[in-house]
Amino acid sequence: MNIVKQSTGNVVLTDAAGNIQKVFVNVNALDVKGTDEVIVKFGFNQWHSLFASQIDNTQVEPAAAVPFSGNAFDLVALLSSSFFFELSGGGGGDDLAQVLINGNSAGATDIDMNGNDIGKVSVINFSISSSANPSQGGLGWNTSLGTLDLGLAGGNTISNVGQHLHARVVNKTTPLVNLTKAGYQVVIVAGATGQRLSVKLAKADNDANSAGTLGIVCENIAGNQEGFICSVGQLTNINTTGSLQGETWNDGDSLYLSPTTFGAVTNVKPSAPFHEVRIGYVEYAHAINGKIYVKIDNGYELDELHNVAITTPLNGNYLEYNGTVWVNQGLVYTIELIAALTVDFYAPYNMKINSVTNILNSPTTTIQDDNVAYVLGATIAAGSKITVTVNTASVVNLNIEKA
Questions:
Q1: What is residue 118's three-state secondary structure?
Q2: 210-250: per-residue pLDDT in tens?
Q3: Are 256 and 266 in contact (CB under 8 A)?
Q4: Residues paired with residue 386 on neighbouring β-strands, in sequence order
Q5: Which of 65, 188, 339, 353 could potentially form a cystine with 57 if both were Cys, beta carbons 3.0 to 4.6 Å apart?
Q6: Which residues, in sequence order, are bridge partners of residue 213?
C-alpha cells in the first residue's frame, strides 16, 4: 500500500497499481497502537487503521514515491508532519530532517527531494551547538562566526552567509601562471571568458593595472581554469606574518596592493604617483592560521570625482569652481602696457608661455628671454628676464605653464 499526498492537498491510500482505496478528509487525530498500527481519526467518528508493515511507499506529489521501512512510531511522525498537519503546528515533535530520516529511510543520511520544494516551511533551524564544516554543496552552522557556512563548487572554498562576497573567475594571467591560495594574489578584471570575468595580476603602479582590482585568490586556480576569489570577507589559513613579502605584519595592519610586484600585498601605504588600493586588514598575524579581512577599495583619482571635470591638465594648473563643477585652469599673467610699450619681469620658476591673449586692443607682441627672441612653448629658466613689447598701448594675458 502507498500513502500519497496529492497536489490538491488530499491524502489517499492507494494499492500497488495506484488505485485509490481510501481518502482521508479532515484528519483530527493519530493514535499509535502497538509498534505496527496507527489509527487515523477523521471526519465525525470515522477511523481507519494503517499498519506500518503494509506501507510500501509514501509520496508528496509532485515528488516521486519514497520507500518506507519504519515502524508505527516512524509512520505517525511522518504523517503528522508531512501529510496531515503543519510542520509548525501541533502535529509531531520531530523537525523535518528527523521526520524524513526516521519515516522514509529508517536512518538514512541522504534525502532525495527530486528537485522539488518542501512545502509549508517558513523556518529551518540549524543546530548551533557545534560547527558543521560542510563540504561542496553543504550548508551548516559556524559557531565561531555566528552564521551559516556554504560549501562552494570544487570543495575548497567556504562562503560565510552574509559575511562573504565571492566571485567565480577564469585565470587569464599574462604570462599564464597558476594562482594559489597560499600566495593570495590580488587580481584585476581582464575581460570575460565563458560568461565569467577573466582576471590577471594587479599592480598599484598605474590606473590600467589597478583600477579594476576585484579581489584576492582564495583557492588554487590553474591557468585558463575557473576558481573563486574573495572581494569581501575573511580569508583564513594563510601566512600573514609578512615574511612572504619581506615585511613584518601585526594584527590590525592595513594592507595595500603592491606598486612594485604584480599580485602582491604590502602593509606599506603607497604614495603618489603610485595608486592607493586598500586590500583589507590583518585579523590574525600567524604563519599557518593567519587571517585577512578582505575589503577592496580602489580609491579615486581627482578626475574620477563626480563634481570635477579635468581637461588636458598642465603643470601648474589649479582647480576653479565654475558654478557647476570644479575645472582645471592654467596660470595667467596679465600685463598692462599703456604708459610704456615694453615691460620686464623675472621668471619665478621654470615656466613656459604657451600663448598670448589680447585683452585691450590687438597689438603685435614680441617676447624675449634674456634678450633672446622667445618661441612660444619653450622652457624659460627660473630667474630669467622676460621682456614683453607691444606696438600699441594694450593689455595682454600671458598663459603660463610650470615647466
A1: coil
A2: 999 999 999 999 999 999 999 999 999 999 999 999 999 99
A3: yes
A4: 345, 369
A5: 65
A6: 188
- How far is CA 94 from each of CA 77, 80, 81, 83, 376, rounded to the nearest angstrom? 7, 10, 8, 14, 90
Q: Are 168 and 228 in contact (CB under 8 A)?
A: yes
Count of CB atoms situated within 10 Å of the CB of 328: 17
Q: Which of 205, 206, 220 is nearest to 266 (CA)?
A: 205
**Amino acid at position 260, single letter:** T
Where do the domains of the chain lie?
2-105, 165-297, 331-402
What pLDDT, in 10s, does the model give residues 243-264?
Answer: 999 999 999 999 999 999 999 9
Q: Which three cell numbers stand for residue 383?
A: 630667474
Q: What pTM, to 2 d.p., does this model score? A: 0.62
- From its phi and psi, is residue 225 left (phi > 0), alpha (psi between -120 and 50) or beta? beta
Cell 615691460, located at residue: 343
CA distance linking residue 186 with residue 259, whole number of Å: 12
Phi, psi of 143 (to 5 degrees): -70, -30
Burial string for 57-89 (b: 16+ CB within 10 Å, else e) reads bbbbeebebbebebbbebbbbbbbbbbbbebee
pLDDT of 102 over the 70 cut: no
Tell me the three cell numbers of residue 22: 481510501
Cell digits of residue 147: 552564521
Secondary structure letter of residue 303 according to DSSP: G
